[in-house]
Write a structure and sequence with these properties.
Layout lengths: L1 H8 L4 H31 L5 H12 L1 H8 L10 H32 L6 H25 L4 H18 L10 H4 L5 H6 L1 H12 L2 E4 L8 H11 L3 H42 L7 H30 L7 E6 L6 H6 L11 E5 L9 H7 L3 E2 L2 H9 L3 E4 L16 E5 L4 H9 L2 E8 L6 E2 L4 H11 L7 E2 L15 E4 L6 H5 L8 H26 L5 E5 L12 E3 L2 H18 L18
Parallel strand pairs: 1-10, 2-5, 2-7, 3-4, 3-5, 6-11
Antiparallel strand pairs: 7-10, 8-9, 11-12
Helix pairs in contact: 1-2, 1-5, 2-3, 2-4, 2-5, 2-10, 3-10, 5-6, 5-7, 6-7, 11-21, 12-13, 16-17, 20-21
């Protein structure tokens, strides 16, 4: 709408200006990057090409722009570029933007009120927006009759797209951002040559694992000591843990026995098949048995490496906290496509609710399995046995991210993911991405406006990210992006210390402090390896809308001290508690709340 207004004011150069703007939106932003990505993925397969890398990054980081500019294609049927720009601007102002904005604001408001978007809210939005669209179509027919047919076609097409993707199949059911019903599991692998491989090479992304088995917190030791003093309940817990460990050992033993038996049969077949022709049936049996042995050995290696790298049992779901948020944390989703990042279960990425309201961005994210970052969606994913990758810092870190300096700010004011882990008895895995803060910056010329819009609309406005060449493209960090996956934090000990109440403030505070203590330790031990030896991790607890004088922050060395201080203050009371919780059970056998 602003561009259309500027074109209207510049009467003398209206057509040349409209020509430049229209081709900038359609050709430069949509057509050329799409063609480059498709040609490279189908024929060339050259992910090291800089042009391919930039186009792939643009296709992902600016998915919202592509979705908005594709809508301008039907209006190219208008006779002049000025008419194209005017009709497109009016259509976006009265049809496209109201649907996205109202849906996103409603989602953000309901998520703050801890409610879900049910069928009543969707019906109210649909009725209201239909009236707005009707009056817009009537005004177009009366004021601009020449463009009525194109505008009507674009409106009906967009409403068809919105009704088929924004709404669930069952009117009273949950939308796809909660259930994941629009996920295409095969799409991640198919897009490797098109998007993920060029972006990974552009970012120089690598994944490291914290294999230090001695990395454990003192609260687990204190809770273990308290558990030894108990009688009946402790015996039941130990028995359940032994049964769980026995089941896992039995699975690994069966896999080893199967591999050994197949190898023995292959050795016995070798002298028999030596004098036979290749067409003999025993030869085919020998070939198939050799392939089966290779598959069993690979599976055995994968099981051992998964248990060694993640510290999780095979099939165990976990909550992975990705830090820091940066400006646009697409690397959290890109991480799940890397072959070296291979958790014991499939992962879903929890993203902001407003992402599921923007055209094309919501489609790409939901096809790849992203869910809404709400308690209901993440609980459902965990119940399905899927691990959840989320960014605990959230949008609060957008206002704190700076690509310069030696301070890395992490916001730790959110505790909902810790409560969810305690309720579901799911282990927490800290993940830190070195170099994430150097990818982009945000124009913070209106900090108060951005803080207010973030609070009431669910996103900061105006949101103007910039990176390479001053464009909304991520930079290439000088040391690349190094993602370090930490050891899992067991939450059972914190439940023991709180009498089995997952909502107990003491349990939540202890788990929260221990999690960020482990994150701080992870940062200090790997920052030299990642190429940032002089950087300091700083934690902040205050909301960005508060004044700086009321904010509380601590350096990386203060987080472990916080956990130790909590332990020292509550160590005597921990020993007096009698735990009554069942031990860690597989996801299918865990009880409800």
């Amino acid at each position: 709408a602003v561009v259309a207004l500027c074109a209207t004011l510049c009467r003398t150069h209206e057509e040349p200006l409209a020509f430049l703007v229209v081709h900038l939106m359609t050709t430069v932003t949509v057509a050329v990057p799409t063609a480059v990505v498709l040609v490279n993925g189908l024929f060339l397969r050259r992910p090291e090409n800089p042009v391919v890398q930039v186009c792939a990054c643009h296709f992902v980081w600016n998915a919202h722009l592509i979705g908005h500019f594709v809508v301008a294609v039907p209006f190219l049927l208008r006779p002049t570029y000025a008419d194209v720009l005017k009709d497109y601007g009016v259509f976006m102002l009265f049809v496209f933007v109201p649907i996205e904005l109202s849906t996103g604001v409603c989602k953000g408001y309901l998520s703050k009120k801890k409610c879900s978007l049910n069928w009543r809210h969707r019906a109210a939005l649909g009725v209201t927006l239909c009236h707005v669209t009707f009056f817009f179509s009537l005004g177009t027919y009366l004021l601009r009759p020449a463009s009525f047919h194109v505008t009507l076609f674009a409106t009906l097409a967009f409403y068809g797209y919105a009704s088929s993707t924004y709404l669930p199949s069952n009117p009273q059911g949950q939308p796809p951002e909660i259930t994941g019903s629009r996920e295409w599991p095969w799409l991640k692998g198919m897009l490797w040559h098109f998007l993920w491989d060029p972006i990974k090479r552009y970012m120089r992304l690598r994944v490291l694992f914290d294999d230090d088995a001695s990395c454990c917190d003192e609260l687990s030791s204190a809770a273990a000591a308290a558990a030894k003093t108990t009688t009946t309940t402790t015996t039941e817990n130990d028995a359940a843990k032994k049964d769980d460990e026995f089941e896992n050992r039995r699975r690994r033993l069966l896999l080893a026995q199967s591999t050994a038996s197949a190898k023995k049969a292959l050795r016995e077949l070798a002298p028999l098949c030596a004098a036979l022709s290749r067409a003999h049936p025993l030869r085919r049996i020998q070939k198939n048995l050799g392939a089966a042995v290779d598959g069993l050995q690979k599976e055995q290696t994968d099981v051992n490496s998964r248990r060694h790298r993640f510290g999780l049992e095979l099939g165990e779901a976990a909550i992975l906290g990705y830090h820091p948020h940066g400006i646009i944390p697409f690397n959290a989703a890109l991480l799940t496509t890397c072959p070296e990042f291979d958790p014991p279960t499939r992962c879903v990425v929890a993203v902001d609710a407003f992402v599921h309201a923007i055209a094309w961005m919501r489609d790409l994210s939901q096809w790849l399995g992203a869910r809404e970052c709400t308690r209901e969606a993440m609980r459902r994913a965990l119940d399905d046995g899927r691990s959840v990758v989320l960014v605990p810092g959230g949008q609060a870190e957008i206002f704190r991210t700076r690509s310069w300096g030696d301070r890395v700010v992490v916001y730790r004011g959110h505790r909902g993911f810790v409560r969810l882990a305690l309720k579901t008895r799911t282990r927490l895995v800290p993940v830190f991405a070195f170099g994430e803060w150097e990818l982009m910056d945000n124009v913070s010329c209106f900090p108060r406006t951005q803080a207010v819009t973030r609070r009431y609309l669910g996103f900061p406005a105006p949101f103007l990210p910039y990176g390479r060449f001053g464009l909304p493209l991520p930079r290439r960090p000088p040391h690349g992006v190094t993602v370090v996956v930490g050891r899992p934090l067991d939450v059972e000990a914190f439940l023991l210390s709180s009498g089995e109440d997952p909502n107990h403030d003491r349990a939540v505070a202890a788990a929260h402090a221990a999690y960020f203590a482990r994150l701080s330790d992870l940062f200090d031990r790997f920052k030299a390896t990642a190429g940032y030896p002089d950087h300091v991790l700083e934690f902040q607890d205050s909301s960005p809308r508060r004044s700086p004088s009321s904010s509380s922050s601590s350096s990386s060395g203060a987080a472990p001290a916080l956990g130790v201080a909590f332990l020292a203050r509550n160590e005597s009371s921990v020993d007096d508690l009698t735990p009554s919780s069942p031990a860690r059970l597989p996801r299918a056998a865990r009880p409800a709340d």
